[in-house]
Design a protein that fits this description.
Structural class: alpha/beta
Number of helices: 12
Largest sheet: 6 strands, parallel
Oligomer: single chain
Order of helices and strands: EEEHEHEEEHEHEHEEHEHEEEHEHHEHH
Helix content: 25-40%
Strand content: 15-25%
Distance between the termini: 51 Å
Radius of gyration: 22 Å
Length: 418
C-alpha cells in the first residue's frame, strides 16, 4: 500500500542526470509525526525523476509517494514525485514516436517504456541474437551498490601501478533490480559517468534509465561486451538493498546468480567480498554472512575471490587491526570448500572458488579518496570502515590483472595459502 501526500515546492536543490532534488511543504504531517511550527505538514526533501515527471519549480503542487519516508526507511530519505497535483505543472514532453517496447517497473502506475538493446527494433538486435560469449571478459560481482566506485577505483589503481593509462579502461556497470530501479537515483553512477570512470551503465530486469537497457543480466553483460565494447563489467544492485535479518531474505543473494550468469557466458567471474571492520553486528563483521551465502549456496559456478592482504601500515589503522585481518582470512577459507566444511551437498557448488591474495597498502586509500562522488557504505565513510572499500577495490585490482592480454585462463593466481 502507498502513503500519499500533496506537496508544494519551496525550492530546488542539486540535480544530476535524470533527477532533481526539491524542498517541499506537505499538505499534512506524515503518520505519527507532528508538523513543523508554522507549516501545514512539515518540510521534507523530495526527488523528481525529470525524464518521467518533468522538473517542478517553486510554487508548483506535486503528488508525492511518501511510503518509505513515513516508515523511516533510510535510502535517500526522499519523498518521490509521482506527478503534478494541479493544472499548469510543467510536464515532460511526450516521447517522440520511435521503436522500443520493453516495459520496466511493469504494471505499476509509473511503468516506463524503453528501447531494449536486445529487442527486435534495436539496431543491435542482430549482434545480440548471435552473441553467446563474453570472450573471457572479467565480471566483478558485488552485493552492495556502494562497492561500485571502490571496484572502479581499484581498477584504475592497478592500471596506474602497471604504467597503463586508467582512461584506457572501458568499464561497464550492469545495474540489477534488487535496490533502486531508476539509474537516475544513483548520484554515484552520475558522478562516475561524468568523470569518465564508467564507459556505460546497462540497466537490466526492472531497472531503467541506463545508457543501454536490457532484459536480463545475461543480455546486459553481452551488451556491455559486444555493443559498448567494454573490457570489464561490474554487476551489483542499485542503491538501497532489502534485508529481513534472515539468511535468504536479502536482495544481495542475487550476487550468486550473477556469478552463474558470467560463468555461463564464458566470462571470468570475480566475487567481491562484502567486508566490514566497523559493523556492530557480528554477522557482518569481517566477511558478511551475505557474501558467504551468495557465493557458497547460490553460486554454482567457480569464481575468483580476491582477499585483501594489508601492509602493516594499513593494518595498524585503528579502524582495521590485526584481529580483523585474521578473521577475514579464516572466513575466506570457507569459500574454498564446497560448503565451508569440505563436504559436498546438493545445495553447494561442486567446484570451490579460487581465493586470490591481493596486496593492499595506503596508496590504495589515496586512490579511493579520489572516487567521484565519494565513498559511503551503511552510513560509514572510508575513514570509518576502510576494510569495506579496500576489499571491493581488491576485486577491481584482480579484474584488471585478468583483463591483460597475457593473462589467459590457464595462467591464473593460485589459491590463498592456509
Amino acid at each position: 500500500m502507498m502513503t500519499w501526500r500533496i506537496g508544494t515546492v519551496i525550492s530546488t536543490g542539486r540535480s544530476w542526470r535524470g533527477a532533481c532534488e526539491l524542498e517541499v511543504t506537505l499538505d499534512r504531517p506524515l503518520p505519527g509525526r507532528d508538523a513543523q511550527a508554522g507549516e501545514a505538514g512539515g518540510t521534507v526533501r523530495a526527488l523528481a525523476y525529470t525524464d518521467l515527471v518533468g522538473a517542478p519549480g517553486p510554487g508548483e503542487a506535486v503528488l508525492l509517494n511518501v511510503s518509505a519516508l513515513a516508515r523511516g526507511l533510510g535510502t535517500g530519505g526522499y519523498a518521490l514525485v509521482v506527478g503534478p497535483a494541479a493544472a499548469g505543472t510543467h510536464l515532460p514532453p511526450d516521447p517522440a514516436p520511435g521503436p522500443g517496447h520493453l516495459v520496466k517497473a511493469r504494471y505499476t502506475p509509473l511503468q516506463t517504456m524503453v528501447l531494449g538493446v536486445d529487442e527486435q527494433e534495436s539496431p543491435h538486435h542482430t549482434t545480440l541474437a548471435g552473441a553467446d560469449s563474453l570472450d573471457g571478459m572479467p565480471v566483478v560481482v558485488a552485493d552492495l551498490h556502494s562497492a561500485l566506485p571502490a571496484v572502479v577505483a581499484g581498477l584504475r589503481h592497478a592500471a596506474a601501478r602497471t604504467g597503463t593509462d586508467p582512461a584506457g579502461l572501458k568499464v561497464a556497470y550492469v545495474m540489477t533490480d534488487g535496490g533502486a530501479l531508476p539509474a537516475a537515483f544513483s548520484r554515484t553512477v552520475a558522478a562516475l559517468r561524468d568523470a569518465g570512470w564508467l564507459e556505460t551503465c546497462v540497466t537490466v530486469g526492472q531497472t531503467f534509465g541506463g545508457d543501454l537497457e536490457a532484459v536480463t543480466v545475461h543480455t546486459g553483460l553481452l551488451a556491455a561486451r559486444h555493443v559498448a565494447g567494454c573490457d570489464i563489467a561490474v554487476v551489483t544492485q542499485g542503491p538501497g538493498n532489502l534485508g529481513t535479518g534472515t539468511r535468504w531474505g536479502y536482495s544481495g543473494v542475487a550476487a550468486g546468480e550473477a556469478v552463474n550468469a558470467a560463468a555461463t557466458l564464458h566470462g571470468r567471474p570475480v566475487a567481491s567480498l562484502r567486508v566490514s571492520g566497523a559493523d556492530p553486528r557480528d554477522r557482518h563483521l569481517g566477511i558478511s554472512h551475505h557474501s558467504l551465502t551468495a557465493y557458497t549456496r547460490v553460486a554454482l559456478a567457480p569464481a575468483d575471490v580476491p582477499v585483501p592482504v594489508p601492509t602493516a601500515e594499513l593494518e595498524s589503522l585503528p579502524t582495521w587491526g590485526i584481529p580483523l585481518t585474521h578473521r577475514i582470512r579464516e572466513q575466506a577459507q570457507t569459500l574454498a570448500a564446497p560448503d565451508g566444511t569440505g563436504r559436498h551437498t546438493p545445495h553447494t557448488p561442486h567446484t570451490p572458488h579460487t581465493l586470490v591474495d591481493v596486496p593492499a597498502d595506503t596508496t590504495l586509500l589515496d586512490t579511493l579518496r579520489t572516487a567521484p562522488g565519494g565513498l559511503r557504505t551503511m552510513g560509514r565513510d572510508l575513514d570509518a570502515d576502510p576494510a569495506s572499500f579496500v576489499a571491493a577495490a581488491a576485486a577491481g585490482i584482480h579484474a584488471h590483472r585478468l583483463a591483460q592480454p597475457d593473462n589467459q585462463p590457464d595462467n591464473q593466481p593460485g589459491s590463498l595459502p592456509a
